[in-house]
Amino acid sequence: MTPSAPPPSKSPSHSLSVRMFDQLVQETADSPGVTRASFGPGEAFAHQLAASVARDLGLAVTVDIAGNQYMKWAGRDRSAPRIIVGSHMDSVRHGGNYDGAAGVVAGLSAIADLQAQGFTPACDIVVMAIRAEELVWFPTPYCGSRMAFGLLDPSEYDSVTRSDTGRSLADHMRDEGCNPDALRAGARPLDPATIRHFIEVHIEQGVTLDMQGIPVGVVNGIRGNLRYRHGRITGKYAHAGALAREYRHDAVLAGAEFVQVLERKWDDLTAQGDDFVATMGEFWTDPDMHGMTKVPGSVQFTMDLRSLSNDVLMQVDAYLRDMAQAIGDRRRVTIDMGAYTNAPPAIIDPALVARFEAVARRLDIPTLTLPSGAGHDCATFSWQGVSSGMLFIRNQNGSHNPDEAMRMPDFDKAVQVLAATLCELA
């Protein structure tokens, strides 16, 4: 059968989702905002809450050796590839209540609505609560989902440490009853061949939907990135009044020109229709050496470049290295961008994009199709060849801050689109 979507205010899931969000904020509050550290008590509470709600819905709950939790609604054909709806439940320190957790709550809410309408899926539908997505705790991307596929480098279990404790990932995992040694030895809890689709619901982490008055976004790609953590400009310190301009090796002025070059390149790429964003997140002089009356001899910086095209990213890298050489030669400094890390863009299944859009039109829910500038666990599934899709929920104040302001009517609309899509897919 194909159930019709109930009005959001009458949806069986509405009270469920409100209750879950209220409990999450009450139990993980860390003023201002909430804190759910990866492999910490806040994240553990969120997983326990999701498991309790899932069992109330009659779902089977299991946890893999990486700590990822699976809440399974059994389908008619248990051997058929399953559909996974998932997201993470950790947060940044003093973050918002919805980043990540909204995706797990949405999955459980959609199942509650479909159950209330008498729907039985043809295949298993699994809600997955993923561990350790937020890079701020363990500096390795998509930690929980990569562990699920056996993709984490064995050395990282001991070499990667949590930012607040200094203890290793392996130690924190053991505290939560996980088995890092089996993962290090090659265990793979998830097999891509057993997954038909992966769908992630997430608050938009920018304000595009809010600025355009649209409640739900359909993601058409996840930007890849180049990240430079150790950029440095080296000149010479000198007296601010005594040294003439033509003899200076001013690191700050060279850095300012380099930033302008980056922005002009951004302008050119935008004008020709290429997807691209850039951020100089840190840019500072040495506090032990700088001073008002000194020509600055050193600048350190970080740089984050993102695009839906890895070719664009590599072209920008080559261009900036050429310009760094030219600026450095002219200003008598050395601009060293340093090594980078490269996360390639993630492909969103165009068929899922089209289906989300069609379902939303049928439900008379306005949507906007847009890229995701932030990374998500969905990227890990996409890289493994799994058909992957994402829905965004309008968010008034961005994310990674205590002022996230997702409105429940918007969340309910996203759940409607998700539930109707799951009905069609399963």
**Tally of individual helices:** 13
What is the end-to-end distance?
11 Å
Report the radius of gyration as a whole number of Å: 24 Å
- Tell the overall outline: elongated
CATH domain topology of the largest domain: Aminopeptidase
Helix content: 25-40%
Structure summary, number of beta strands: 15
Q: Mind summarizing the main beta sheet?
A: 8 strands, mixed
Instruction: Give me the side-by-side strand order of the main sheet.
Output: 1-2-4-3-5-15-6-14
CATH architecture level-2 label of the largest domain: 3-Layer(aba) Sandwich
CATH homologous superfamily of the largest domain, by name? Zn peptidases
- The tally of domains stands at 2
CATH class of the largest domain: Alpha Beta
Q: Name the poorly predicted regions.
A: none
Class inferred from helices and paired strands? alpha/beta
Strand content: 15-25%
Order of helices and strands: HHEEEHEHHHHEHEEEHEEEHEEHEHEH
pLDDT averaged over residues: 95
List keywords for this structure.
426 residues, alpha/beta, Aminopeptidase, Alpha-Beta Plaits, 2 domains, five-stranded antiparallel β-sheet, elongated
Can you walk me through this structure?
The protein is an alpha/beta fold. The protein folds into two domains: 8-223 and 345-425, 3-Layer(aba) Sandwich (Aminopeptidase); 224-343, 2-Layer Sandwich (Alpha-Beta Plaits). The chain has 13 helices and 15 strands. An eight-stranded mixed β-sheet has the order 1-2-4-3-5-15-6-14. Strands 7, 9, 11, 12 and 13 form a five-stranded antiparallel β-sheet that branches. α1 (12-27) packs antiparallel against α2 (41-56) and α3 packs across α13 (408-425). 46% of the residues are buried. The mean pLDDT is 95.
